[in-house]
């Protein structure tokens, strides 16, 4: 791996080999998402606890302080919306010149394996890898499922993750599921957890994050479970304790309750 690629990866992943990416790219297909109507205000208290920010170039330019030292993972695929026929028909949205101009530490591309647009989105990933390799910029592949949530099973996600790695992704972002070790065990590049089953409590989120890390994930890329929480900073710090400090779910929950009640 070239020095530049290694350097950018070291910005994203800590010395402990773990990471907490904060995604706020949801508006590229959802519009003004609840709690992200004003992204800059939402992320301001959270950025100190993020290892990287996953964001579109529009929000980056308009809402993120250019003085930030938090590495940027730039969302570079899109062109669909929730009011359209489906989310799978994506294209690349950002040129390599703009990626470099924005000083991105990495880029993120969604793939929709098993859909009508499988070939197109895998080609998007391959094209972005080809462009970014020449400049030492890592590509994070996102194993998207669109509206077909039933695809979040271990066989599908293991297949999708391995294909992304085979095509050159340096990191794979995928959903948590049972037997998560079958995903990480069959994927030769680092895996981060995108999310998991619908959760009613903070403890449930902490439990699937802890289990995923125990089964090989290097970290998480969680947004809604953080910034939609009534106490987002407390939630982010508690999850960070699981990722970077080895806290167990009950310990993280205790930390969350202490922080949310602190003045």
Kindly describe this structure:
The protein has 263 residues and is an alpha/beta fold. The chain has one domain (3-223): Aldolase class I (TIM Barrel, Alpha-Beta Barrel), CATH 3.20.20. It contains 12 helices and 10 strands. It has helices spanning 3-12, 27-30, 39-43, 57-63, 96-101, 118-133, 154-166, 181-185, 202-214, 224-227, 232-245, 249-261, and strands at residues 19-23, 52-55, 72-75, 77-78, 91-92, 106-111, 139-143, 171-174, 191-193, 219-221. The strands form 2 sheets. An 8-stranded parallel β-barrel has the order 1-2-3-6-7-8-9-10, surrounded by 6 helices. A two-stranded antiparallel sheet has the order 4-5. Helix 6 (118-133) links the parallel strand 6 (106-111) and strand 7 (139-143). The mean pLDDT is 95.
- What separation lies between the terminal Cα atoms? 47 Å
At the fourth level of CATH, the homologous superfamily is Aldolase class I
Strand order of the largest sheet: 1-2-3-6-7-8-9-10
Bin the helical content: 40-55%
- Report the radius of gyration as a whole number of Å: 17 Å
What is the helix tally?
A: 12
- What CATH architecture label applies? Alpha-Beta Barrel
Beta-strand percentage?
5-15%
Shape: globular
CATH class reads Alpha Beta
| Overall pLDDT level | 95
Largest sheet: 8 strands, parallel, barrel
Please give the domain count.
Answer: 1
Structural class: alpha/beta
What is the CATH topology classification name?
TIM Barrel
How do the helices and strands follow one another from N- to C-terminus? HEHHEHEEEHEHEHEHEHEHHH
């Amino acid at each position: 791996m070239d020095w530049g690629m290694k350097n950018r990866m070291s910005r994203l992943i800590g010395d402990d080999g773990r990471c907490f990416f904060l995604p706020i790219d949801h508006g590229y297909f959802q519009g003004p998402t609840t709690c992200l109507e004003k992204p800059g205000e939402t992320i301001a208290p959270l950025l100190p606890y993020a290892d990287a920010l996953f964001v579109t170039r529009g929000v980056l330019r308009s809402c993120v302080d250019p003085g930030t030292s938090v590495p940027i993972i730039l969302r570079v695929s899109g062109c669909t919306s929730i009011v359209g026929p489906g989310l799978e028909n994506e294209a690349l949205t950002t040129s390599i010149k703009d990626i470099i101009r924005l000083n991105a530490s990495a880029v993120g591309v969604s793939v929709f394996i098993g859909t009508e647009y499988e070939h197109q989105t895998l080609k998007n990933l391959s094209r972005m890898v080809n462009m970014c390799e020449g400049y030492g910029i890592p590509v994070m592949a996102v194993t998207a499922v669109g509206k077909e949530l039933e695809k979040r099973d271990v066989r599908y996600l293991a297949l999708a993750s391995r294909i992304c790695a085979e095509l050159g992704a340096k990191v794979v972002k995928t959903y948590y599921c049972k037997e998560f070790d079958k995903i990480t065990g069959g994927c030769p590049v680092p895996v981060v957890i995108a999310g998991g089953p619908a959760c009613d409590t903070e403890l449930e989120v902490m439990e699937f994050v802890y289990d995923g890390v125990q089964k090989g994930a290097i970290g998480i890329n969680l947004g809604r479970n953080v910034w939609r929480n009534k106490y987002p900073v407390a939630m982010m710090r508690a999850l960070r304790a699981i990722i970077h400090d080895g806290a167990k779910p009950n310990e993280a929950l205790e930390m969350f309750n202490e922080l949310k009640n602190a003045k």
